[in-house]
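Example 649, ligand WTA.
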Amino acid sequence: MTNHCFIGFKIYLHMSNYHIKGLEEYFNVYRKSIDKPEEFWGDIAEEHFVWRKKWDKVLSWDFTKPEIKWFENAKLNITENCIDRHLLTKGNQTAILFEPNDPTEKAEHITYHQLHERVNRMANVLKSQGVEKGDRVCVYLPMIPELAITVLACARIGAVHSVVFAGFSSSALASRIIDCDAKVVITSDGSYRGAKTIDLKGIVDEALNSCSGVKTVLVAKRINSDIAMKDGRDKWLQPLLDDASTDCEPEIMDAEDPLFILYTSGSTGKPKGMVHTTGGYMVYSAYTFKNVFQYEQGDVYWCTADIGWITGHSYIVYGPLANGATTVMFEGVPNHPDYSRFWEIVEKHKVNQFYTAPTAIRALAKEDLVFVDKHDLTSLKVLGTVGEPINEEAWHWYNDNIGKKNSPIVDTWWQTETGGIMISPIPFATPTIPTFATLPLPGIQPALMDENANEINGNSVEGRLCIKYPWPSIARTIWGDHQRYKDTYFSAYENMYFTGDGARRDAVGYYRITGRVDDVIIVSGHNLGTAPIEDAINEHPAVAESAIVGFPHDIKGNALYGYVTLKETGETRVHDNLRKEINQLITEHIGPIAKLDKIQFTVGLPKTRSGKIMRRILRKVASNELDNLGDISTLLNPEVVEKIIEERL
Ligand code: WTA
């Protein structure tokens, strides 16, 4: 490291651009970020990160192609920023604090020094298996330290990680492996989930029956189960790590080299492999982490997400580590061994910032308050939510019982595609209002659009949420399908990134996200596209056609309601076995998170004259909003609506 020339390796100056501490400062910084975006991000990048070579240009962009480049021709390795540069000053500070599923198993404190060694060992193991810069590595691991370490090891050697959430089924895993053409898969012998264990390796084996491109499977030991190892393909990870060197020179990457692919559901067809690149993603995830959580040196920060989702990528791994933070990684679930687990962990590790999903809050709010009250939560300073709208009741429960009205709640709106938080209060600066994500972060220029694709100006308005100007961590493409990237995000409105969400801007300019305006349904904070679920259902030999919609659910936010027509002369059969078989198919194709709560068998689906299913009507019936169905007379088959209403579940 010493023989390279670093620029920007300065002692952190107290720059308000990087760490906003009040509302007035926020407005000033925001103004600057809009007036002079290149200067704004250029200064932050230079002052707060280490680069091997400076950029020639901060930003070039064209939303019509679309092509976006940040920090063009700059060179860096993100792991130098997340690990190496902290070694001198905080080598012995905990970087990752691993809290196991079983509360009686000891928590593991991995210091920055140890993280450095372990990431380097893993990087060398990957190299020894033939992984090179630019190769894709599929990571299918539970929330154990090896997951974070593998992600960082890929980044160390310039391999592109593609983490697949370890709750996805074998066929969902297979399609993701095939899409990005991964040669290596890293998994474990199994995982703990509350009182259960899950046979992850079995799922990988099944997936690989249809992925001939995978030559190597590395297996971490977690549950000590007796699993089959395929000769020549499967290797235990630990002996390889034991033999590997703790030195690994970081690969020098271009700022625009891909860092990772992460799949997200689309409203149609197969999942989209969102591609995030190195320089801009690093700058934005670190900057937003610092400001949205007001992280101070020595704080313990905990995000309960899984690293299999974007929240875990940006706000368990990269954002916190780039700031030299202590980040908690929790293997378990909120209700094991009982409903006090989250609060027990907050007390045990004196957590200062706590970031979770509304669905978890709603589930915990249903339980007795003794689960909360027996724990000392006074360490908490900032609370966060992400992934779906938080309802007012849940917000108040969180504010009253967890924050004791003393910790601001940051309701953070963002997406897999945006790489980092876009709209959110800055704690101790932005006054919060329940259910409002409030104001855009510096550099973010939201716009609301009407039905005729015109921007709606002024306040107290509602429309479709777009972003007018690039920010450093916007996804650059969809892996292998740039046209789909263009069609999905840049075609609905000229020169705008379209989010797929609706939003309201209130009288003072605060944003409230109203929900998806496309066929993506957010269930327990997970994005589910209706098309892949319908495709899975339609594989059932008895099924003619199906349509999925969301309906409000107390805990999950939304649950799934399926309308299914059967073959055989249109006769309606209510058949519990069939329901089970349909959910089984969904579990096999996607995973248990996509199972339907209700399945209604119907004689037909309401359709327009051009044959398009009228989901609007199905959504209203599922939500029991029957007084306002709108005009159904133009339908091809208005008579089925009555029947559907009559037989609704
Ligand atoms: C929804 C998660 C309301 C939204 C980081 C978005 C939210 C989708 C919020 C992205 C919020 C996320 N309030 N809705 N605070 N945060 N969403 O890709 O519909 O898993 O488009 O990224 O979640 O989900 P994703």
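Summary: The pocket of WTA is lined by residues 264, 309-311, 386-389, 411-416, 437, 499-501, 513, 516, 522, 527 (CB under 6 Å).
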